[in-house]
């Protein structure tokens, strides 16, 4: 018998006896499943959050804020500045009109559905150009708000997370009662966590006429961004900065998604070490239970390598099973689940879905195989080095 | 106690197995101590909460301004002892990653309000008398290597100076500490008078008021009276106790905290299954030994106690090792995550909770084999060999 056939035979025999040892084998499966489920769940949370903000950004659009502002909330602009910016090169025009949307960004305390506790909800005041500038925005129920009226449209995520945001309902914002006349989607992006209203209505309610937070501009193409940004920077009358949307939203999501990711890996690595000890335990006892069997094989001429391989394959097979199980648990429990949290970068609630992607599950299964390999290595080594004569005498 | 030797010998009957089991439980407790502290840091690590302090914030959103004039009117509410002010400064020190809160405050009144903060009297006097002065908490001073006399540049994001200049410079005139055994304070304090005079807009407004009441039992009434004072004005207020205020803010983190707690649960459940299994296996191998013990005259209850004791001893030793490693790792971790979670530390309560959990883990994993051992009849057990 050549070595490959030996390996194949022993491994097969080994795996066939697995059901007899199911209770101790289960330890590896459960331990590894726990590690993989935790890792995949946390990574999919980070991924889902980053996806949401990144989907908001389109490379052919730019956001203009006051110099030094880290986000729309800390930026204050005025309508006079909009006229200067509208004349800059790079901006797309329609019917001679620059595609520039002056916007007011505010937050209001609105109770969340689940806890009833108030949380920061984004209010965005836009003119009639705000929605056309974002073709991804679609009214899924109801209609658009009418200019000048106490009406608003709510993003899908906001309507899902905040109390009272039902189509046709009225909610209290400050002293006004605003009617929810529409629900919109925005390609899964961050705007879905916002309320949109007519700009003059919001200014009147909150900040007084003429106060703005940001300008959104439609560029002729992504390639015209540098030209536009340079023009803003060069103008001495303005203290402003332009950022292309993808860069802006990546910056907004960076710190939270890095935090969750780092946390996920740290927990998975430490937990993985724990699971590895458990796997070692199982494999050592599997080897000791099979002492005589292994010795017999060695005595009738099987080599050390097939024995080593068979133990490692067993441990990796169990770990693989655990990895698949863990990935499945994470997918069943979390995929598509919507949660909402405070994004410190924008100081507002962002609703997002967990995204358990095949890529993340693959990462989890690779970790599982690694754990199986390490957990099987030492016991395999011991199995191969058992002195045949003593081992045969074992009980 | 006299059985400790026997317990120990029982544990180390199969050394490899015990060491490996010990290691995996220790890892679980290492994770427990670290995760619990991180979750507490985010959700429960409530800093500086006084039962006799109220926070008066704008009714509709924390980002709205309140007029400074409210201070006098709040002072007139019966039951109010002191009122002081604070504001949000925002701004960036060198890199946006270096985030820490910066609050413009009234120096003397602030330290009188938060009397648990510790600062040298001459440093407090210097803070009061230096317009551009700042006092910083010790952990920030250590993190950035600041010393008294250093000048700290902060780039404004919300508050440019009246000239349009965005660069603010503050001189470190003091370093303050929080009360021992509590989460370390992380806020850089600057002079409100200077800030208000130099900023471009919103002069004469504040972010929130901090109120001390004479009697914590009447805090609810005082809060209602304060809000009634400004009801139907353009600047309505919402007054809550300091604990409520922080809890409401922390609730915003919402489900994520819940998910982290869920993960802790998952870790523990996994470990429980793993140890339970090993314990059961160890017991099966030792049925003859139990029979011998009983033959020697050990009572059923003693056998139960011995088996349970062994399980508890195992998980306690493992918990001590795991949490010991966590305590040793804590200072390094605190340094590494200072930007995201300043003041990370493992609280004594966490360690106590861990020991409690260890006993529970021992009981849960040990009870089934222990009861089996107790019920075992000698003849039957000896025959099993």
Which characteristics define this entry?
heterodimer; A: 395 residues; alpha+beta; ten-stranded mixed sheet; two-stranded antiparallel ribbon; 11 helices; B: 385 residues; five-stranded mixed sheet; 14 helices
Report on the architecture of this protein.
The complex is a heterodimer of chains A (395) and B (385). With 395 residues, chain A is of the alpha+beta class. Chain A is 51% helix and 22% strand. Chain A has helices spanning 3-17, 22-56, 79-86, 156-161, 199-207, 225-234, 245-289, 291-299, 304-334, 358-385, 388-393, and strands at residues 61-66, 77-78, 93-94, 97-98, 100-111, 118-126, 138-142, 151-155, 170-173, 176-185, 194-198, 211-212, 214-218, 240-244, 338-343, 348-353. In chain A, the strands form 4 sheets. In chain A, strands 1, 5, 6, 7, 8, 9, 10, 11, 13 and 14 form a 10-stranded mixed beta sheet that branches. Chain B has helices at residues 4-11, 15-44, 70-75, 107-113, 121-129, 138-144, 192-198, 219-230, 242-251, 255-285, 287-295, 300-336, 348-375, 378-383; strands spanning 53-58, 66-67, 80-86, 102-105, 133-137, 151-155, 167-176, 188-191, 205-206, 208-213, 237-241. Chain B is elongated, with a radius of gyration of 29 Å. Chain B has 14 helices and 11 strands. With 385 residues, chain B is of the alpha+beta class. The relative contact order of chain B is 0.18. Chains A and B meet through helix 2, strand 5, strand 6, helix 7 and strand 15 of A and helix 2 and helix 10 of B.
């Amino acid at each position: 018998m050549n070595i490959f056939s030996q390996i194949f035979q022993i491994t097969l025999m080994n795996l066939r006896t697995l059901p007899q040892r199911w209770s101790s084998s289960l330890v590896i499966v459960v331990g590894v499943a726990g590690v993989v489920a935790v890792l995949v769940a946390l990574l999919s949370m980070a991924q889902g959050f980053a996806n949401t903000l990144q989907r908001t950004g389109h490379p052919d659009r730019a956001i203009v804020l006051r110099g030094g502002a880290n986000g729309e909330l800390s930026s204050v602009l005025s309508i006079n500045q909009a006229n200067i910016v509208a004349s800059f090169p790079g901006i797309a025009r329609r019917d001679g009109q620059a595609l520039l949307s002056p916007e007011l960004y505010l937050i209001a305390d609105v109770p969340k559905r689940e806890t009833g506790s108030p949380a920061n909800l984004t209010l965005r005041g836009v003119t009639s150009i705000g929605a056309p500038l974002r073709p991804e925005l679609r009214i899924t129920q109801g209609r658009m708000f009418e200019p000048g009226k106490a009406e608003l449209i709510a993003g899908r995520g906001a309507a899902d997370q905040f109390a009272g945001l039902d189509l046709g309902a009225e909610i209290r914002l400050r002293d006004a009662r605003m009617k929810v006349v529409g629900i919109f989607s925005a390609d899964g992006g961050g705007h879905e966590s916002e309320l949109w209203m007519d700009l003059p209505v919001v200014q009147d309610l909150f900040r007084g006429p003429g106060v703005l937070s940001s300008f959104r501009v439609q560029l002729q193409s992504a390639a015209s961004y540098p030209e536009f940004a340079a023009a803003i920077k060069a103008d001495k009358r303005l203290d402003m900065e332009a950022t292309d949307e993808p860069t802006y939203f990546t910056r907004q999501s960076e710190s939270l998604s890095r935090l969750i990711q780092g946390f996920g890996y740290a927990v998975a690595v430490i937990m993985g070490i724990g699971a590895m000890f458990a796997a070692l335990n199982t494999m050592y006892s599997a080897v000791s239970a099979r002492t005589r069997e292994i010795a017999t094989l060695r005595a009738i001429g099987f080599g050390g390598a097939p024995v080593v391989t068979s133990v490692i394959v067993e441990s990796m097979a169990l770990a693989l099973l655990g990895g698949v199980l863990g990935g499945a648990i994470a997918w069943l429990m979390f995929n598509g689940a919507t949660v909402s949290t405070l994004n410190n970068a924008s100081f507002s609630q962002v609703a997002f879905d967990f995204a358990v992607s095949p890529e993340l599950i693959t990462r989890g299964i690779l970790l599982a195989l690694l754990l199986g390999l390490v957990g099987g290595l030492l016991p395999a080594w011991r199995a191969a080095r058992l002195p045949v004569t003593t081992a045969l005498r074992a009980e | 106690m006299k059985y400790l030797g026997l317990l120990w010998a029982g544990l180390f009957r199969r050394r490899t197995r015990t060491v490996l089991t010990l290691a995996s439980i220790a890892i679980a407790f290492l994770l427990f101590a670290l995760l619990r502290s991180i979750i507490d840091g985010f959700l429960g690590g409530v800093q500086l909460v006084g039962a006799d302090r109220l926070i008066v914030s704008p009714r509709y959103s924390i980002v709205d301004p309140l007029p400074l004039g409210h201070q006098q009117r709040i002072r007139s509410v019966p039951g109010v002892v002191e009122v002081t002010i604070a504001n949000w400064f925002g701004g960036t020190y060198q890199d946006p990653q270096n985030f820490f809160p910066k609050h413009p405050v009234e120096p003397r009144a602030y330290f009188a309000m938060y009397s648990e903060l510790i600062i040298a009297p001459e440093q407090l006097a210097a803070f009061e008398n230096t317009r551009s002065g700042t006092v910083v908490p010790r952990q920030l001073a250590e993190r950035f290597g600041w010393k008294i006399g250093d000048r700290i540049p902060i780039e404004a994001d919300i508050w440019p100076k009246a000239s349009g200049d965005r660069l603010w410079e503050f001189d470190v005139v003091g370093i303050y500490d929080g009360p021992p055994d509590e989460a370390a304070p992380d806020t850089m304090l600057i002079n409100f008078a200077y800030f208000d005079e130099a900023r471009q807009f919103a002069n004469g407004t504040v972010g929130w008021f901090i109120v001390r009441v004479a009697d914590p039992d009447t805090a609810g009434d005082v809060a209602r009276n304060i809000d009634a004072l400004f009801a139907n004005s353009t600047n309505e207020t919402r007054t809550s106790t300091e604990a409520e205020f922080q809890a409401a803010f922390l609730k915003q983190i919402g489900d994520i905290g819940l998910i982290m707690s869920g993960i802790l649960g998952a870790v523990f459940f996994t470990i429980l299954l793993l140890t339970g299994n090993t314990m059961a296996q160890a017991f099966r191998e030792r049925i003859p030994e139990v029979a011998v013990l009983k033959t020697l005259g050990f009572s059923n209850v003693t056998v139960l106690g011995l088996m349970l004791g062994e399980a508890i001893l195992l998980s306690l030793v493992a918990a001590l090792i795991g949490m010991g490693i966590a305590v040793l790792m804590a200072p390094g971790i605190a340094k590494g995550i200072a930007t995201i979670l300043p003041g990370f530390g493992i609280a004594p309560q966490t360690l106590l909770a861990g020991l409690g959990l260890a006993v529970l883990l021992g009981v849960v994993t040990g009870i089934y084999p222990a009861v089996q051992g107790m019920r075992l009849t000698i003849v039957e057990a000896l025959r099993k060999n």
